Task: structure prediction
Amino acid sequence: MLPEAQNAELRAVINSRAVPAVVATRARIVLWMAEGRRRKDVAVLAGVSLPTVDRWVDRYASNGLAGLEDASHAAPREQVTARVAARILALTRATPPVESGLSHWSSRQMAGYLKRTEGVSVSWHYVAKLWRDNGLKPHRQGTFKLSKDPRFAEKVADIVGLYLDPPGGAVVLSIDEKTQVQALDRTQPLLPMDFGVTEQRTHDYKRHGITNLFAALDIATGQVTADCQPVRDGARFLAFLRKAVKPHAGKDIHVVLDNLSTHDTPEVRTWLAANPNVTFHFTPIGSSWLNMIEIWFGLITRLSIRRGTFTSVNALIVRIRDYVAHWNIDAKPFTWTATAEEILAKVRWVQTNVNQLVDNNAQ
Result:
């Protein structure tokens, strides 16, 4: 068994996007061995030989996290050491200590806490960048949902392959619908007790209806094609699909999309049969995060829709169209960095820990 601090640091290394996949695998080996697993089982899980398992366990015992890195890959320009970065990530993923009085970490609170309790000096700018690089948002809570799709690994490899190495001359489109986008009219009456003190306001909401946003992202250029419809059904999806592929006539087109019934109607299948240059690639069940258009949906929601005031559905649609037009003026593609092997390794690690938890509770 490892001390909790070392355990947390190793898990932080495993979950960090900034850590090379080979180093993350070595950290997994150490953790699995510390859990009492058999060497041969660890070797199978990690895809390495038995001597390799022994080597990284011994290196970690002698040199800690530094022992898991290759000397030739040292990065002298890093602002802080790997151990300090791992410590920050481990603290971020844990609830702040009771004595701090915090419900969640802020970058400034984290930097101050490290200085007070451990004498480690880092800027809050560094903490914020580290969180961004690792996709951490301490002010939000989330859970990792394991997909039950029997073809999970196959679909991950297929879609990630399109992102990292798209077929030459082909177009890859990421398509989805954001449903029931609400047109809200936000009014802000002054509270009576605030007169003469501070002008604090509270929101009243009037709902004027909804629209459904269809969008297609060209992963090579970042250009977005979008349309708003009053309802979401197979006919409207097919109409939007025709609109999205029209600019790419004569090319092979690969479409990444979710497992929705509207994406697999008889009409859609008939259209695909008549257009063999278009190929669908479905994300695994419960894994819409693999669909790159979700990143763009997050941006338009935060930057344009969430805090907007819309007196009608038409006003909401105009805002959406304006945002799309502005986006396409200087569109930039998103960069997908995780390989299929890295994703599957993380899923295996989560599955292993879930199974262990179930086994422990059953005893």
